[in-house]
Design the sequence.
């Protein structure tokens, strides 16, 4: 909050600019920091780079390639569903497409794109020079990429996963799915879960231990609360999926019994394991989006967030409560009424923190001066669409209504309103917001507004009718439907709408391609925003900050709450601070890239294929190399690094 | 009678704007209460949505003219607490009560005795038995209007879900478990249901029909279904019967009263009386039957029914005549 | 701006390894691994609830002798490790090396007992036989895999001790390895309770 003598945000830019210049760049002619932090210019170093900015962008771009793949799959599905009894796709193709669409979007697009933004902005936001474990970051990026490649390799042999993104047993058991389809899904996700878990640990340690001196927890930008919450949620949720996948593969390949009813197994065990993971997961891919909104909205309302502590609390509460609602995906399985009611109530309780967040944004807008720049437009659309999607979620949390709505297009509408209309729109807001920081150039506002309005119109035209299709009785996951069920018009509308929506995203793609070269120069702080990443250069220098910023307030760039600290230019140094108050402890030395991160991920990739074809030798050799390369990776190559051991 | 019904189905199918599976077109008390609940939820959601959008609109429009005019003083958390927590909590509590009350209205265990059916899900058709008679049907359930029906649900392979939106919400058929629901049809008619849990290749074509009849019509129907298969009526049908009951069909299908005793596919004893073929994939008529016998996998890829291209046109006509005659 | 300029030491005055990044990361690893076992154990009890007898007919209630010895060897190994780690706090690398060797020996003893336990069990029932057998084997062997990883970590630490990497001020690697090993022991207690003790009380 601004100090009392400051009456408006216009009063301090000059003073601010002078101060920030020393934070952003080394004095002209000096290269001490640059020499330490720059990635060497050779291809191996490029491949194994540990620069969180390069890796963050790679994460985002790779995730967007998966978005394009998932989007193309969705487009083809929509063409098939445009009219009844269409014969564009065989049922086999359709089932693979919707499974890979859901899997891609949930695991390879939305989560990675959100963590990509986190990996990019977190060190900048906390005033650090890197993530806590730079080489882990390199590993988790490559492993994520290869997990995606592995799953998509299934298309090459025509055996893509085809049991839906939640892969219910016994349909996914070997008795009903004898090919490799499900093995691609299970093994690929196991690799991805490793990448995701270590990525989360990296963020947790960074957020807790690397905040600039003075950035106590109550001054932490809200998006960090989101990453912290979701990273913790990953630690506790991901193992449920890992356990499920492990049991599934053992049952499929070594005749263990877990899910088959003969011999004491239970098909519902899979559903419990999956959704104990799955529901936290939907908040893992949603809370970072709300965090992004809490960054964008104050900037474009020209005033600090209302009730930031409450919003942080709401974020944590959502993440926590998300572990207690999984059974709402299983209301139609016939489990006992008491537990059904419990989980119904839980699902309603979990809406309250969302309401708090929404109303905190509304209040910020109310007291502020809203500027309708493109990021803000996407943020506003997020609110509209997320509230609609949240409300359809609350409707399905009402058990008797869910008996009708479950597994229909009503649920498909719900998930797209919260995920595509919510999280994905937030990603677009974030992309327009941080693109200038990442590239040093502005995106075109004109193209941005075109893209926004086309996307907004297309999205609602495409996905709103799905509510109606569901209520008219259209089950999900059907490759076709009969004429005369009243479904023709709504489906045609949906298809037209999503095609418009896709066109809208392509305008942004074009905008990015063009603006990277020809966009207006952004300057360090084009939006006159409040947080530390805008205190440094655009794009930031390899060392992020030439001097360590010292923070005295929650909106440091607005109320002058940032001063210039030490240079720490003796090696690759960055401060280590205490978790709560962020008081200075020491400077730590961070490692450079090495090739073992790359080797490790490649070997794990090979091990996936070994597991797929069940070749014990390949797996044994891979295991040996894994052990050796981890050992080599961790071996300190420099006395100074003995203490960091990242 | 059955012609009338078939006409019904055709009309249903022909009227494009009619939605036979709409969750708000109830034909029984359970679905009617669900339909009311649906409307309550839609209205409540619309109101909350409207309020949020209007507030957002107002907040955007209420713009101080310059940055200098922006009020930067910190604001208390009153708006998010009242608007985002307290008011929603009240609304949610109300919704939860409505939910629990309407759920309690239809307990599975009631004292009223019910007509019991057992439904077994297969990839991708429905096997149906009545509790007391030996009759087995497929893909079509007849029920007496106004009486309590209990459906017991089992699965022979993967998970399916029994969904008849105009009569009741859906409930899963889980291998190794038995679920049950109770429903009442209070209007005579032909209702469409569909498998609602993804169950593989032909999940889309796993529909079924519920025919609600006056109780005496129902009893007559039941009695006729309990009979063995009608003997062939003419020489064409006799030729067909020979082919069907002794040939490849008999490996998979049962036709009671004949040597056909296969247990893999649906019971065909009264196949001619049904409204559809292949779990709602095709209307039941001679042309569809011939096409189905010749090349079922082209009509329903993945079906367990093999293509049987070996029959001549004459043979097909005979088999079809026999099967369509099995009322 | 100049009011009491803070100092920015670049080496930690207080070298407590619990403050290092690596230690915090290991806490996270333990948390997520503990969840993995928690889910497997929950799966065990879920399957238990679905069945009439657990272990099912034909499988005897597991005997406690070997598991007791296994528990003893793991607990003892943790104690020895603590003793060794105390050594490095006083710059006594030798004591640490001795402690690590002792821990590794006790871990090897655990593995031997585990192998003999498995030989008996496999004679009695195989994984494919029932849900009980499957969940028993998968959880216990996953724990065994953790023991193996733990031994690799301790061996690696031993190697580094012999290379003179550690001292009273520099012992993050030791603390992290120790933390992991204690964690493996705690997980064993959970596995023991689930598969050996719980069936006695149902
Ligand atoms: C971004 C991801 C995301 C988010 C945020 C949510 C949020 C919620 N979801 Fe959703 N959900 C999914 C992703 C998500 N969901 C997915 C992917 C599935 C399907 C998986 C599949 O089957 O494939 C699913 C399925 C799903 C189901 C199962 C449906 C079925 O299969 O039958 C249910 C049932 O309860 C549900 C409920 C909820 C609820 C109550 C919320 C709440 O958190 C929403 C809270 C928000 C609001 C309510 C709006 C804001 C609040 C206010 C403006 C205050 C005023 C509000 C009131 C007075 C009500 N979800
Ligand atoms: C984040 C999650 C997410 C997102 C964004 C989407 C996006 C879309 N989804 Fe998705 N969907 C799911 C998650 C998601 N979906 C899930 C989990 C399921 C359930 C799966 C299951 O049942 O197992 C599902 C199921 C599902 C179905 C139901 C299938 C069925 O039940 O039979 C349908 C049908 O219409 C559909 C359509 C679409 C469409 C048209 C889009 C469009 O929004 C896509 C838009 C396309 C693009 C945006 C691509 C074009 C972009 C480029 C070419 C590059 C652009 C690059 C930049 C901008 C940098 N989806
Ligand atoms: Cu049976 Cu879907
Ligand atoms: Cu959920």
Sequence:
């Amino acid at each position: 909050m601004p100090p009392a003598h400051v009456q408006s945000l216009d009063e301090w830019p000059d003073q601010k600019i002078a101060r920030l210049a020393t934070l952003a760049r080394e004095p002209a002619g000096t290269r001490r920091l640059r020499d330490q932090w720059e990635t060497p210019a050779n291809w191996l170093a490029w491949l194994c780079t540990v620069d969180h900015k390069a890796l963050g962008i790679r994460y985002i771009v790779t995730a967007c390639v998966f978005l394009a793949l998932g989007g193309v799959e969705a487009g083809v599905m929509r063409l098939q569903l445009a009219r009844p009894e269409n014969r564009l796709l065989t049922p086999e193709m359709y089932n693979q497409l919707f499974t890979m669409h859901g899997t891609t979007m949930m695991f390879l697009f939305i989560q990675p794109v959100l963590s990509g933004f986190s990996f990019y902005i977190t060190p900048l936001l906390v005033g650090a020079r890197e993530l806590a474990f730079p080489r882990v970051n390199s590993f988790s990026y490559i492993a994520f990429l290869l997990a995606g490649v592995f799953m998509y390799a299934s298309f090459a042999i025509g055996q893509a996963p085809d049991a839906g993104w939640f892969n219910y047993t016994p349909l996914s058991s070997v008795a009903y799915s004898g090919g490799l389809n499900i093995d691609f899904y299970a093994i690929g996700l196991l690799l991805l879960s490793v990448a995701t878990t270590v990525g989360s640990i990296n963020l947790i340690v960074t957020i807790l231990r690397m905040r600039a001196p003075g950035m106590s927890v109550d001054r932490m930008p809200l998006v960090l609360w989101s990453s912290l919450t979701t990273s913790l949620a990953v630690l506790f949720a991901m193992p449920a999926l890992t356990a499920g996948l492990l049991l599934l593969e053992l049952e499929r390949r070594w005749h263990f019994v877990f899910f088959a009813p003969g011999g004491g197994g239970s098909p519902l065990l899979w559903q419990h394991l999956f959704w104990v993971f799955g529901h936290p997961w939907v908040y893992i891919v949603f809370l970072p989006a709300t965090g992004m909104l809490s960054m964008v909205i104050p900037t474009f309302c020209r005033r600090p967030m209302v009730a930031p502590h409450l919003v942080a609390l709401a974020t944590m509460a959502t993440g926590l409560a998300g572990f207690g609602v999984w059974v709402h995906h299983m209301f139609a399985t016939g489990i006992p009424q008491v537990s059904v009611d419990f989980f119904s109530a839980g699902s309603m309780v979990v809406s309250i923190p969302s309401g708090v967040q929404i109303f905190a944004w509304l209040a910020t807008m109310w007291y502020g001066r809203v500027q309708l720049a493109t990021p803000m437009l996407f943020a506003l659309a997020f609110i509209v669409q997320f509230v609609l999607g949240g409300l359809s979620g609350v409707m399905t949390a009402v058990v008797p209504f869910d008996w009708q709505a479950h597994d229909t297009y009503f649920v498909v509408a719900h998930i797209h309103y919260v995920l595509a209309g919510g999280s994905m729109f937030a990603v677009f807001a974030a992309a327009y917001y941080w693109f200038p920081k990442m590239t040093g150039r502005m995106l075109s506002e004109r193209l941005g507004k075109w893209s926004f309005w086309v996307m907004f119109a297309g999205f609602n035209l495409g996905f709103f009718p799905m509510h109606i299709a569901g209520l008219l009785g259209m089950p999900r996951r059907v490759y076709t439907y009969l004429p005369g069920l009243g479904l023709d018009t709504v489906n045609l509308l949906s298809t037209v709408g999503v095609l418009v929506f896709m066109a809208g995203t392509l305008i942004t793609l074009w905008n990015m391609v063009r603006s990277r070269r020809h966009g207006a120069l952004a300057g360090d702080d084009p939006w006159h925003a409040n947080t530390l990443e805008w205190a440094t250069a655009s794009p930031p220098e390899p060392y992020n900050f030439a001097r360590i910023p010292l923070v005295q307030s929650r909106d440091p760039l607005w109320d002058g709450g940032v001063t210039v600290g030490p240079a720490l230019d003796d090696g690759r140094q960055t401060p280590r601070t205490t978790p709560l108050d962020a008081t200075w402890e020491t400077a730590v030395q961070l490692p450079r890239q090495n090739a073992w991160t790359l080797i490790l991920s490649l070997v794990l990739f090979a091990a996936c294929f070994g597991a797929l074809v069940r070749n014990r030798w390949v797996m044994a050799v891979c295991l040996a190399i894994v052990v050796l390369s981890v050992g080599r990776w961790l071996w300190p190559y420099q006395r100074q690094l003995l203490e960091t051991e990242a | 009678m059955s012609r009338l019904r078939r006409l019904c189905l055709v009309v249903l199918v022909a009227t494009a704007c009619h939605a036979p599976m709409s969750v708000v077109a109830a034909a029984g008390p359970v679905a009617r209460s669900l339909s009311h609940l649906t409307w309550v939820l839609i209205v409540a959601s619309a109101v909350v949505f409207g309020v949020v959008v209007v507030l957002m609109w107002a907040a955007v429009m209420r713009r101080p003219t310059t940055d200098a005019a922006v009020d930067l003083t910190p604001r208390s958390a009153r708006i998010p607490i009242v608007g985002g927590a307290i008011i929603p909590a009240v609304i949610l509590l109300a919704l939860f009560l409505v939910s629990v009350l309407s759920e309690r209205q239809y307990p599975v265990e009631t004292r009223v005795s019910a007509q019991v059916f057992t439904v077994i899900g297969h990839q991708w058709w429905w096997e149906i038995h009545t509790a007391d008679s030996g009759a087995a049907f497929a893909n079509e359930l007849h029920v007496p209007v106004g009486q309590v029906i209990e459906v017991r649900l089992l699965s022979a392979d993967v998970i399916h879900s029994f969904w008849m939106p105009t009569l009741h919400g859906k409930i899963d058929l889980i291998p190794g478990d038995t679920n049950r629901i109770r429903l009442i049809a209070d209007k005579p008619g032909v209702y469409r249901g569909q498998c609602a849990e993804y169950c593989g290749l032909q999940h889309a074509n796993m529909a079924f029909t519920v025919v609600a009849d006056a109780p005496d019509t129902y009893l007559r129907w039941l009695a006729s279904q309990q009979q063995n298969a009608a003997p062939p009526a003419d020489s064409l049908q006799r030729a067909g019967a020979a082919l069907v009951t002794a040939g490849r069909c008999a490996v998979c299908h049962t036709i009671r009263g004949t040597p056909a005793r296969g247990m893999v596919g649906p019971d065909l004893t009264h196949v001619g009386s049904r409204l559809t073929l292949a779990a709602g994939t095709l209307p039941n008529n001679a042309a569809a039957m011939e096409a189905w016998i010749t090349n079922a996998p082209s009509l329903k890829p993945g079906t367990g029914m093999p293509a049987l291209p070996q029959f001549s046109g004459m043979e097909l006509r005979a088999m079809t005549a026999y099967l369509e005659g099995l009322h | 701006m100049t009011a009491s300029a803070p100092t920015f030491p670049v080496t930690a005055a207080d070298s407590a390894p619990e403050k290092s990044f690596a230690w915090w990361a290991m806490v996270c690893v333990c948390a997520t691994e503990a969840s993995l076992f928690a889910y497997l154990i929950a799966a065990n009890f879920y399957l238990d609830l679905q069945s009439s007898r657990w272990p099912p007919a034909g499988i005897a209630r597991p005997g406690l002798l070997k598991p007791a010895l296994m528990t003893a060897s793991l607990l003892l190994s943790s104690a020895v490790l603590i003793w060794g780690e105390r050594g490095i706090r006083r710059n006594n690398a030798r004591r640490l090396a001795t402690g690590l060797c002792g821990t590794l020996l006790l871990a090897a003893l655990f593995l031997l007992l585990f192998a003999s336990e498995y030989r008996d069990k496999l004679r009695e029932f195989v994984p494919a036989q029932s849900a009980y057998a499957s969940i028993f084997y998968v959880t216990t062997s996953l724990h065994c895999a953790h023991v193996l990883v733990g031994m690799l970590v301790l061996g690696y630490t031993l190697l580094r001790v012999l290379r003179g990497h550690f001292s009273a001020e520099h012992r993050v690697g030791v603390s992290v390895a120790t933390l992991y090993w204690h964690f493996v022991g705690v997980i064993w207690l959970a596995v023991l309770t689930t598969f050996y003790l719980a069936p006695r009380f149902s």
In short: The radius of gyration of chain A is 25 Å.
